[in-house]
């Protein structure tokens, strides 16, 4: 906000991107670690829905604050929102802390009866373990006491750990396991395709609407708002259905359906163009929750890696796609003889390949 030159603003934006990446990875990991396995998709869909709600309401709020308070208004508002977000994160109770109080969120809602049964089971297991330890101790009654028997002390048995600890794995080992996994390769490629396709609209859609229908920035902004509203519900719906039918089938259906509607974006009929744009964007955003759930499923199938590892790969793939998408789409739109059609076919081919 108060950057005196471009270099300072660049550094600030870079640090903002780093912090956003860390929050994104840790947030998804926390959700997957806390939510029951059967509800991971719907919980991730709810998180994506919250993201889309913010994307819908933020531009009008930022515009109103800019008109009323000037350049610093939106920044002050963002700082306040970030402060309350920090307070909320400090109040989060992690799963390892909740289990100390007899509640495991990863197993669903625990009742008083289930907690008592689990406690009794733990006590019984401890008693059986102690009995086994006592049976293993053999007492020899010597015929005659020798000096060696008197002087040699008995080595006490080391106390057993309450629960086995997960072995620590190096970053290199985790990376090798992920590279060798075909499921991670497929999910990462799908994330790159999703990011390229969704970000390719950013530089080209305003140009297309201004060229064909002479839309100004306000009209294009309304179109973007109409595109964003349905995605609020689509992300949760796709996450919920992925819990029922699997992430792979929902991702495949969303990609194929979105690619079919991309064909309709070549029309010059305004109402049909906007309708096709809204539906294709809604279907494409429906990929995000199942893809996130698929990464969580991959982690559960490879015990040696953690959620942070797989969502780090997810974040890298998404960042790579959002870097490549706008650049290539802008170049195609500018250099090709029919830029919009070429760019649309490019997105269509990518979605179909997935």
UniProtKB/TrEMBL annotation:
Segments of this protein annotated with the region Disordered: 145-167
Domain Major facilitator superfamily (MFS) profile residues, every copy: 1-354
Annotated transmembrane regions: 6-32, 44-66, 72-92, 221-238, 245-263, 269-291
Membrane topology field: Multi-pass membrane protein
Organism of provenance: Schizopora paradoxa
Sorted UniProt keywords: Membrane, Transmembrane, Transmembrane helix, Transport
Protein name from the UniProt record: MFS general substrate transporter
Biased composition (Low complexity): 145-157
Keyword Transmembrane helix attached: yes
Primary localization: membrane
Classification via Pfam families: MFS_1
Gene Ontology CC annotation, any one: membrane
One Gene Ontology MF term: transmembrane transporter activity
Location within or outside the cell: Membrane
Protein origin, superkingdom: Eukaryota
Protein's UniProt keywords contain Membrane: yes
